[in-house]
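Student: Send me a single protein entry containing the residue sequence and its fold in token form, directly below this note:

Tutor:
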Amino acid sequence: MYLPSQFESHNAEHAADLIGAHPLATLVSCDDQGDPFISHLPLHLERTGDRFVLLGHFARGNPHWRLLEQLPRAQALFMGPHAYLSPKVYPDLVRVPTWNYLAVHCRGEVRLIDEPEAKDRLLKRLIGDHEPPYAAQWRGLEPGYTSKMLSGIVGFELPVRQWVCKLKLNQHRSEAHAAMRADYAVGNDNERALADWMRRLNMNDPAPDDH
């Protein structure tokens, strides 16, 4: 990922919060010819300090997991809120539009999980992220049904060897921050989320000109 220094965050809390709020990942790996294979999967994050492990599962009919049996390297890409930025936020007219966005990329080697009890534990973590009360319903289903459902998936974990977090919010153009934040704060869901991140990053108004 192209990552100018002004947009790079080394803060694990930033990366973890983005993954938690936007868990649908684009999982990318390459075959032995270098051609990419892509799956879109919700992933669960387990974090210890700056170290991340991602958990998820494939439908057994998805050939991606068979590729990862042979070539386990993969990247999980998470896209956070994003929005257009109009040049009208600048105090002068010699400007161009851009697009602001937040993203996290995680790289590592996938370990497949196909033992039923381990897959059941994995599913409970995903359920816990999105609908904790469903765990009781899952436990109450007929064993034959749950066994069939578990046999239809292949779980995996991705211990993250490297992660990068990009927060592209026009940090290097402080003269635009006040108008940019004001516009985003009354916009759509993505724009309001970016305004919240500007506040979180203390992207304050530039100091008034004393002259």
Q: What stands out?
A: The helical segments are 12-21, 64-70, 116-130, 134-140, 143-151, 177-185, 189-200. The CA atoms of residues 148 and 181 lie 50 Å apart. The domain at 5-83+99-172 is CATH 2.30.110.10 (Pnp Oxidase; Chain A).
